[in-house]
Design a protein that fits this description.
Strand content: 5-15%
Largest sheet: 5 strands, parallel
Mean pLDDT: 76
Oligomer: single chain
Low-confidence stretches: 118-133, 182-190, 249-261, 418-425, 663-671, 673-680
Number of strands: 13
Helix content: 40-55%
Radius of gyration: 33 Å
Number of helices: 28
């Protein structure tokens, strides 16, 4: 059950707040003898700058130990719903709190907008902005006001909804658009926040699967509805659902109840933005629901927003346990036929081949357990369904490959600062303050009880902070990036529905792209140092997490990546110094290379044997007198003895030094004492020393690697 709280201005009318209490008590969501915790603020005029910390502390206290929190707030003005205006208003304070607490579900006693002209919507107590706006801006504000009334009014307080963490209903998206907008009091230091223009719906009655798949879609640019009940499924996707395009001339109960103009246009806009669903094939919701939802044809008839004729751009994916009972054979055949006729029309693309390839059934169905955030996204072919552009084309205002259309990450420098070169500095102070609030709250979750839900919550908090500062403040960006990846890995390790092996290479690649984009804000001489040191710190934290959860192969992969980074850091630190230690760099680089895998180790041994064979042969050839070198028979005999040199190279690697007699079969005349001995060979001694040293080194590497594999520490 959700907890409730109230925030309001000291002079706010009490009737609306009392009405909210009555609604909750009438539905038995609030006991008669229990009051909702409330916080009120008395502003110094219209400036609410100093109120954020107190309000944030109040909300954090109410959230402590709660799975969710519903906040009833005083009325807001849609036009002033942005947090970085020069003099924050009450609506600006609410906007800041909504960004700092993404897991809170908000409802407002009034949502107002007053615009000049005959089509203005009435309100009282709010000043009209003095700066001129275009007609398009006015229409956008009206659309936002209608949308917020439909989703965040008091009359929607008892509607069934999933977690607000993934901004399915778009409140944070509206605030982001206002922050990006011009002429709203934030022209100095404008920050271009990434916008989520499309919606995804995750339908799964298992909460952990729903949250995990929602995190995956949210991190790739979608606003996500995490649906775990039948009531919300109908509310969103049913005949009169908000994501279902309305039939022509068909009025709905929703429209009549909300009683706002042009509600149909709001629903059409919402349905047009629905681009992706991730559905469990076998649905069994905890609340009352219709049977037969595992029949895809019947599911389409009951939830028409999923139908191809209603949503031709919709991409549908299924995550299922894949069990097959004998009595379900007929249903499985019907589903297979449905998939072939209705869903395989979709095509996948790549940057190299934009004409597309037909989607396969393997891309539509993924069977549980799932395979990690990055691997699951690719397995569902989302990296090819949304190809975007790469290279130079990406600089031309195009989509980022693998992300939702219109969502570009990491942002380019011109996107973050706009065209105002005077704003070429770190993130605006108030956004940085919100990011610090998010990161502080995320850090506390590291010490809390580790669960899938808390880890996903921490990942969203850190990810929102990362987007808020737009990579413009490198130190804070590195902290946010570190926390986000740590929480995602914790969620993957703790989730029982996850495969044992996780995708690490894709995560490291994504991390490096963010670090490279952040480094653009540093001096050119320090950019590579920032990237390497940042990657080393994040990898070190991931190693601790993976090792603690017994993920041996993933730990080794991170260690290999960390060794590569350490080698690059050492090389940069020593490069330019006149020191004999520079001679050790090739040894360190070679060690880093062979430690990546046993295959590399055996390749190195093979090449080393070939090298030593050549060295022994070269030493032997140098010991032959010049007169004999000109003899053809000598050369032929020398070539025939080449396998012997390979044997000697192998023996040398096993610390068996070769004597001159073993290499050369020739003798010299006796000396004055009558002794007969071989001519000493300096080159032979050197080759022997190199072979023995290389043998000891590689044998030590091999033993340590095998021991690590056996012990699986």
């Amino acid at each position: 059950m959700s907890a409730y709280a109230i925030i309001h201005r000291s002079h706010a009318p009490k009737a609306a707040l009392a009405a909210a209490r009555d609604i909750l008590r009438a539905r038995l969501l609030l006991p008669e003898d229990e009051e909702i915790p409330a916080w009120s603020v008395f502003a110094n005029g219209d400036d609410y700058t100093e109120s954020f910390d107190a309000a944030a502390a109040f909300l954090a206290k109410q959230l402590a130990g709660q799975a969710s929190l519903t906040v009833i707030a005083d009325g807001i003005d849609v036009e002033q719903l942005h947090p970085i205006a020069h003099a924050p208003t009450w609506s600006g304070l609410v906007a800041a709190l909504a960004l700092a607490f993404p897991e809170i579900r908000w409802h407002f006693t009034g949502i107002h907008l007053r615009l000049p002209g005959k089509n203005s919507e009435e309100t009282t107590g709010f000043a009209v902005g003095e700066q001129a706006r275009s007609l398009d801006e006015d229409e956008e504000l009206r659309r936002e006001a209608r949308m917020l009334r439909a989703f965040y009014g008091i009359d929607t307080l008892i509607e069934p909804r999933g977690p607000a963490l993934f901004d399915g209903y778009g409140l944070r998206g509206v605030i982001h658009r206002h922050i990006n907008g011009k002429g709203r009091g934030n022209d100095d230091g404008i920050s271009r926040l990434p916008l989520r223009k499309h919606v995804a719906v995750v339908i799964d009655e298992e909460p952990d699967y729903s949250l995990f798949e929602s995190l995956m879609a949210y991190g790739r640019g979608f606003r996500v509805h995490a649906v775990t009940t039948w009531a919300e499924s109908k509310r969103l996707l049913g005949q009169d659902g908000w994501l279902t395009p309305p039939d022509e001339g068909h009025g709905t109960e929703v429209e009549e109840r909300i009683q706002v103009k042009n509600t149909r246009k709001i629903r059409q806009t919402a349905s047009a933005s629905l681009l992706l669903t991730i559905e469990d094939l076998f649905l069994n919701f905890p609340d009352e629901h219709e049977d037969g939802m595992s029949d895809l044809a019947r599911r389409d008839a009951t939830l028409p927003a999923l139908r191809r004729d209603k949503a031709p751009r919709l991409r549908r994916r299924f995550v299922s346990v894949g069990h097959h009972r004998p009595q379900d054979y007929g249903k499985s055949r019907k589903n297979d036929e449905f998939v072939r006729k209705r869903l395989l029309h979709e095509r996948t693309f790549s940057n190299a081949r934009l004409n597309g390839q037909a989607l396969t059934e393997e891309n539509l169905f993924v069977y549980k357990p799932v395979c990690g955030i990055y691997a699951l996204w690719n397995k569902l072919a989302m990296d090819r369904v949304f190809p975007g552009k790469s290279g130079k084309e990406l600089e031309k205002n195009t989509d980022t490959p693998g992300l939702a259309p219109g969502f570009r990450w990491p942002p380019r420098k011109d996107e973050v600062i706009g065209q105002n070169e005077a704003s070429d500095h770190s993130a605006p102070g108030r956004l940085l303050r919100l990011a610090e609030c998010l990161l502080g709250r995320a850090a506390t979750l590291l010490t809390a009880e580790e669960t899938v839900a808390s880890a996903i919550r921490g990942a969203v908090l850190a990810g929102d902070a990362l987007e808020m500062i737009g990579l413009r403040t490198p130190t804070t960006t590195l902290r946010a990036l570190d926390l986000m990846h740590r929480f995602e890995v914790i969620a993957e390790c703790f989730f029982s529905g996850m495969e044992y092996h996780l995708a690490i290479k894709e995560r490291v690649k994504d991390m490096r792209e963010d670090l490279q984009a952040t480094a653009r804000w540093l001096d050119k001489s320090r950019r590579l140092d920032f990237e390497l040191n940042g990657e080393a710190k994040i990898l070190a934290h991931l190693i601790v997490i993976l090792e603690g959860h017994g993920s041996f192969e993933e730990t080794e992969e991170c260690r290999d990546q960390l060794r590569d980074v350490h080698f690059k850091i050492t090389r940069r630190a020593m490069w330019g110094r006149k020191s004999w230690l520079l001679m050790l760099l090739p040894v360190q680089g070679y060690t880093t290379w062979i430690l990546r895998s046993l295959m590399r180790f055996f390749i190195a041994i093979t090449l080393l044997v070939i090298l030593l064979t050549g060295l022994y042969a070269w030493a032997a050839w140098n010991e032959i007198p010049d007169d004999f070198k000109k003899d053809t028979n000598t050369l032929q005999l020398f070539i025939k003895t080449t396998p012997r040199f390979a044997y000697m190279a192998s023996c040398g690697l096993f610390a068996q030094a070769q004597s001159p007699e073993a290499v050369f079969g020739q003798e010299e005349k006796a000396d004055d004492n009558g002794d007969r001995r071989k001519k000493p060979s300096g080159w032979l001694l050197l080759v022997n020393f190199f072979a023995i040293a290389a043998g000891f080194f590689h044998f030590g590497v091999f033993v340590s690697h095998i021991y690590a594999l056996i012990s699986r520490r």
